[in-house]
Amino acid sequence: MDCLKYDVIIIGTGISGLFTALNIDKRKNILMLTKKALGSGSSELAQGGIVSCIDKDSHYKDTLIAGSYYNEKDAIITLQDESEDSINKLIELGVDFDKDESGNFLYTKEGGHSNARILHHKDATGKEIIRALTDKVRERKNIKVLENTSVIDILSKKEINAVISIGDSLKIFYAKSVVIATGGIGQVYKNTTNPLDITGDGIAIASRAGINICDMEFVQFHPTGMYSVDEERRTLISEAVRGEGAVLRNIKGERFMEKYHEMKELAPRDIVSISIFKELIETNSDYIFLDVTHLDKDFIKNRFPNIYEKCLSLGIDISKDYVKVSPTQHYLMGGIETNLNGRTNLNGIFACGECARTGVHGANRLASNSLLEGIVFANRISREINSISFSEASISKEDLEKDLKLYKGKFNNFNCILDLDDIKDNIKEIMEKYVGVIKNDENLTRSLDTINKIKQSLENNLKLSKDYFEVINIVTVSKLIIEGAIKRKENIGAHFKADLRRDCIVR
Ligand SMILES: Cc1cc2nc3c(=O)[nH]c(=O)nc-3n(C[C@H](O)[C@H](O)[C@H](O)COP(=O)(O)OP(=O)(O)OC[C@H]3O[C@@H](n4cnc5c(N)ncnc54)[C@H](O)[C@@H]3O)c2cc1C
Predict the structure, then answer these.
(1) pLDDT digit string (tens) for 140-150?
(2) Fewer Cβ within 10 Å of end Cβ, the chain: N or C?
(3) Are 18 and 39 in contact (CB under 8 A)?
(4) Which part of the chain is the FAD-dependent oxidoreductase 2 FAD-binding domain (predicted)?
């Protein structure tokens, strides 16, 4: 049994966890825990790029329009004011953004943006950022990384917080400051662009610890996830492809976005996804087409090399063939409620990145604002932590044993007899069918009833294992999303309820 006390514990090693760690005073001892390998998560999959607020007024307006004016204005201003510094830090840490022959940055455009303002590294911006940040973390003597270790609970105490994790064994670590940077909730849905380790753990753990969670009904569906029936993670066709001129066609080959919005294919994501969904119903289809065949082949291959190769490996030459796409779960606007310094309502517990609800995105995120939000608020948390005195609290062997005994006590008399894989599949199916792009109260109420029953049976069959916690986290997050959706009475941003027949909701 390890008993270790750190100055800071960071849960998650995507962009926000890594950037927090790298900006904390080198004299502080940091422990980073990650469910998979260092750098895993959605960040390394980001294609389009990162917003650079080179034109503050129009960026402010675009962010508000995309977010249906539900955004916290202070949060957007903070994001803008600190964007240049944070992006410069990324560059200092070794991130290489695309430049023209004269060395000027190249900017691209995505849905909802009125100007080209997105920095990118070809179509693999996330991979480049994570490469640079993980290289730096590996060099830092004050940062210890524990891979393949799932945090399962946080116990908040007066002076110090305890983090319980399962890797090769059950461990408890202590720190004055704990940063939750566990990413989104994608794997709560059957179809998602998020990787397998993204199951909403941080939000469920925070909720169990008594931390405020809000706006969970605002789930973003990306309009162009590559259509497939059996993949665990759907390939994303970046919005930047539409930014460079791709168009959407229904299965009859007709362009349709002009019927729904003046910005056509570059309308905000919620509008494009809802429009596609309506088109799918009208044409009785499961997918539409993304068409880039009118663009120059060399341009496509050079600008989107990864997307081009991925499609080619599936037998689709996008310079000649249409790609089948449909709206796919992609991002969560809600989550752990934080103030502008990343603080939650519990002392010493912070959150940043996709699991945090800072208020920047409102009811729907403007494309490419999330990587920026990740670094700006991670940096603010680091500043906050740097100003906190080193922890005086000492942990004795007796304290540790008492904490663990108490924690383990909850599990002593139980043995899980449930089929966890089956429960997980069932939940993902419910979320996909009834809690998707267009919802209705009847289906939501019925789904909540089923999910409450599943949650109860899991709680009656507690088990101290990684798999058990992943499933209870998925169930907890689903419940929070559905409750939020039932409670919200107006259609706003990514939250859309309509009285459709149930069979219309099945994709
Ligand atoms: C395919 C794709 C493309 C995208 N493209 C863009 C883009 O172009 N621009 C943009 O701005 N945004 C984009 N996004 C969104 C953006 O990438 C994410 O919102 C952002 O990267 C999230 O970063 P994060 O650090 O919060 O979480 P992540 O990068 O998801 O990292 C979460 C980390 O937490 C760990 N973790 C989770 N649970 C636990 C646990 N219980 N215990 C220990 N560790 C845990 C994970 O293993 C992982 O290391 C994209 C997202 C996807 C999926």
Answers:
(1) 999 999 999 99
(2) N
(3) yes
(4) 7-371
Quote the distance between the C-alpha of residue 366 and its chain's center: 14
Each residue's pLDDT tens digit, 308-345: 999 999 999 999 999 999 999 999 999 999 999 999 99
Percent of the chain residues past pLDDT 70, beyond the cut = 97
| Residue limits of CATH 3.90.700.10 in the chain | 224-327
Is residue 329 within 6 Å of ligand 1 at its C-beta? no
Tell me if 75 sits within 8 A of 358, measured CB to CB.
yes
Please report which confidence band the pLDDT of residue 171 belongs to, taking 50, 70 and 90 as the band edges. Answer: very high
What is the SS3 assignment for 103?
A: coil
pLDDT digits (tens, 9 = 90+) for 484-502: 999 999 999 999 998 544 3
Task: Give pLDDT, residue 324.
Answer: 96
Whole-angstrom distance, CA of residue 361 vs CA of residue 47: 19
Q: Which atom of ligand 1 is nearest to the CA of 373?
A: 11
Look at ligand 1, atom 13, and give the residue with the nearest C-alpha.
46
Most ligand 1 atoms within 8 A of CB, residue of 18, 23, 33, 43 to mutate: 43
Output the pLDDT for position 45: 96
Start-end of CATH 3.50.50.60 domains in the chain: 3-218+333-386
For position 159, what pLDDT does the model report?
82
Is 195 a pocket residue for ligand 1 (Cβ < 6 Å)?
Answer: no
Q: Tokens 């800072």 map to which residue?
A: 358
Is pLDDT at 113 greater than 70 in this prediction? yes
- The region, left, alpha or beta by phi > 0 then psi within -120 to 50, assigned to residue 493 is left
Mark whether 131 is an active-site residue.
no
**String of DSSP letters for 161-181:** EEEEEESSSEEEEEEEEEEE-
Q: Is the CB of 183 under 6 A from ligand 1?
A: yes
Pick the CATH number of 411-505 from 1.20.58.100, 3.10.180.10, 2.115.10.20, 3.40.50.300: 1.20.58.100
Place of tokens 């994303």: 236
Q: Pick from 23, 128, 182, 219 the residue to mutate for probing ligand 1's pocket: most ligand atoms within 8 Å of its CB.
A: 182
Q: How far is the CA of 354 from the centre of ligand 1 (A)?
A: 7
pLDDT at 500: 40
- SS3 state of residue 223: strand
Q: What is the distance in A from the centroid of ligand 1 to the CA of 14?
A: 6
Tens of pLDDT, residue by residue over 392-444, are 777 888 888 888 889 998 886 667 789 999 999 999 999 999 999 999 999 99
CATH class for the domain made up of 3-218+333-386: alpha beta
Best mutation site among 325, 370, 381, 473 for ligand 1 pocket (most ligand atoms within 8 Å of CB): 370
pLDDT of residue 268: 85
